[in-house]
Specification:
Elements (H helix, E strand, L loop, with lengths): L3 H10 L3 H18 L14 H8 L7 H15 L7 H19 L1
Helix pairs in contact: 3-5, 4-5
């Protein structure tokens, strides 16, 4: 069993409060070095190819079959009748319509 003396020794040996207090600064520096691949922000006012692909999680140049399959899976998971958000369902449908229209052109 670890006692309080051992845990305080570990904190003292590995930096303890200094590491805890400097973590936000270190995290910011690391993000600057490696980048942050997460999508920042909400939805754009007008749907574009990039956003439609991000919403469905596929390439904006995907085939119609792929678009249909991914849309069906997402709507099954996020349908308002199954507890999903009506707003998200609308955006998923809008993204599908946009990409299908682009694929037809």
């Amino acid at each position: 069993m670890l006692g309080p003396d051992l845990s305080s020794g570990i904190n003292a040996e590995y930096g303890g409060p200094r590491i805890k207090n400097s973590w936000p600064k270190m995290e910011k520096q690391l993000q600057g070095l490696i980048g942050d691949s997460r999508y920042k922000g909400g939805f754009q006012s007008d749907m574009d190819k990039y956003e439609a692909g991000k919403i469905l999680g596929i390439s904006s140049n995907s085939s119609q079959k792929r678009i249909k399959d991914v849309h069906k899976k997402l709507m099954f998971q996020n349908h308002p009748d199954r507890g999903g958000s009506p707003y998200l369902a609308t955006k998923i449908n809008e993204a599908k319509d946009y990409l299908e229209k682009q694929a037809n052109q």
